[in-house]
Every structure is written in C-alpha cells, then in structure tokens.
Amino acid sequence: MEKPNEKGQCWLDPVSVTPRVGSIYPAPFGAPLAGREKRALGDALKLTQFGVNLVTLAPGSWSFQRHWHAKEDEFIYVLQGEVTLVTNAGQKTLTAGMAAGFPAGKADGHHLINQSDKPALYLEVGTRAVSEEAHCSDIDMIARKEGGRFVFTHKNGDPYP
Amino acid sequence: MEKPNEKGQCWLDPVSVTPRVGSIYPAPFGAPLAGREKRALGDALKLTQFGVNLVTLAPGSWSFQRHWHAKEDEFIYVLQGEVTLVTNAGQKTLTAGMAAGFPAGKADGHHLINQSDKPALYLEVGTRAVSEEAHCSDIDMIARKEGGRFVFTHKNGDPYP
User: Fold this and answer.
1) Cβ-Cβ contacts under 8 Å, B97 against chain A
2) Rounded mean pLDDT of B41-68?
3) Cβ(A61)–Cβ(A118) below 8 Å
4) CA-to-CA distance for B126 and B115, rounded, in angstroms?
5) Shortest Cα–Cα distance, B21 to chain A (Å)
6) Using the beta-carbon criterion (under 8 Å), do A98 and B52 form an inter-chain contact?
7) Residue ranges, chain A, pLDDT below 50
C-alpha cells in the first residue's frame, strides 16, 4: 500500500499507518497499557506543532497512567465504543461522539480505561512543546521530555532504571 | 442543559455547544460557506494552544476558501459522510475515517467541499499561533491574524471594506 507523503500526499487512510503497541513506561507501569494500539496520524502527515493519534483500546486496557501535563494542552474525541474517563472528580463514561480536554498546567490527572467488552476507538491530540513534564497522579513517576525524548523519574528526581 | 466547564468539567457532549453558522469573510467570499456549522469544542474545554472544531458541512457547502497557513499546522478527520479535498494536486474524496494534514508554510492551498447529497461531519484542529497569515489560492485575499482577530486584505495589503 502506498504510504502517505511518499509523494507529498496530504491525506491518508489510517489503515496505512503501522500501529505502535503498548507503552514505553518503565516496568511495571506499562502493563495496564498492553491492549493499546496507537497510530500516529499527525506524524505521518508531517505535522510538528501538535500530535494526533488514532488509538484503539482493547477491553480492560488503559490509555496512560493517570497524569496531567505542565505545558501541553490535550484533547480526546471518542469515535467508537465507550471509555471511562478517570479524574479527581471520579469516573465518567464517554460514548462515541463525546470529547474531553485537559488544559496545560491544570493539576488534575486523567486517563481513559476501557471498562466495556468491546474495543474503543478515539482520537487524541496534544501540543508538541519543546520540553514537558507529565505528572502521574497514582504512582511515583514523572515523565520529562527533553530534546524530544522522554525520561522517567521518581518524583524526587531519581531515574527509573 | 449544563454547559461544559461550568464546574470545571473537562468533558462535553458536542450538542451542548452552540454552533456558529457561516463565515466572517468579506462579501462575496463567504457565500459558499453558508452551509457550514462549526462547534468550537476546544474553546468550550478551555484549550488555548490549538483549536478543535466539530464541523457540519451541508451538501454543496465549502469549509473555507482554498488557503494555506504560514505558521499554523492544520489537521482534519472525517467522521460522517464524505468531503472532497481540493489542493494543487486536484480533487480527492475523503470518506469517514480518513484524515488530512497541512503543515505550516507549505504553499499548497486546500479546502473541503461537500459534493455529496448528505451532510458531512468532520473534526478540524489548528495550532493557535499569536500571529498568522492565511493565503487564499483562488481569490485575491489574505487573512491576517493580529492580536487574536482576523483582518482581511487584498494580496497587495489593501484592506477589504
């Protein structure tokens, strides 16, 4: 199949984008994300100012560890199925056609869990700041982005192995 | 109906967001956009770094005059129906589930036209640069954003009334 942008093409069918499965979190924090498949549509279309991922979440899987971003806005839009949004306010079921947004610097961690028995599909959009800190709410971890790469540390700054 | 963010709520159902109909282009350039309804989901969710709009395009309607952005990346994802993407390369039909992206500074104007007999629904995402120039491809107009407001001029800089 022809890849997007091989000829400067500005459109794509997401089936042409190879999904990334699972997580880059240090063990054991990636385990709940094992059923997550992510297609980087924005990257495939040569966008650099924000990322756009098409995400499939298998039943039982999480989107991320619950977190909030210091510098980057984040947005999600549910396309198929349903997901449970978890924040400090508790749980809220989001069905296809519903949206959520998380302004940079708002210290209320969020993530999505598929508590249904069918796959869920959603779009996630996030700004691409030069540096970033994502603070986890329920575990002792901060993800720091430096020079485009993520480094995972304890909250006291000690690195994970 | 409860409005999003009245209680710091981070999610919404788009039916709660009042749509904006039509265009702010100077006459007669807004006429082809009369069948466009736009719900500003990102604004409703207090996002400031990028905009996210849910757009309904009636049969025959255009998304915009064909244009390209000097500083802002743009992304679209088709949710329902189909739209015709027009660029320098010609026309391409995008059906539900397909995406397109327009990197800042790429001087290839684009817009969407609903050439079908059913409404089309899509998401559009665009960076929020402090200043911006959107260059129109097929008409003598540039849209300049200054201090958050758009000003429309001829390509020689003369303002439209």
Assistant:
1) 13-14
2) 98
3) no
4) 24
5) 20
6) no
7) 1-2
Judge whether A111 and A46 are in contact, CB under 8 Å.
no
Q: Where does A21-131 sit in CATH, by number?
A: 2.60.120.10
Residue spans per domain, chain A: 21-131
- Chain B residue with Cα closest to A125: B125
Residue B2 has pLDDT above 50, yes or no: no
Closest among B117, B22, B18 to B62, alpha carbons compared: B22
Q: How far is it, in rounded angstroms, from Cα B3 to Cα A61?
A: 30
Angle at B27 between CA B22 and CA B31, to 5 degrees: 45
Q: Which residue has the tokens 């961690």?
A: A109
Chain B CB contacts of A40 below 8 Å: none
Amino acid code (one letter) for A67? H
* B88 secondary structure, DSSP code: T
> Is this structure's pTM higher than 0.90?
yes
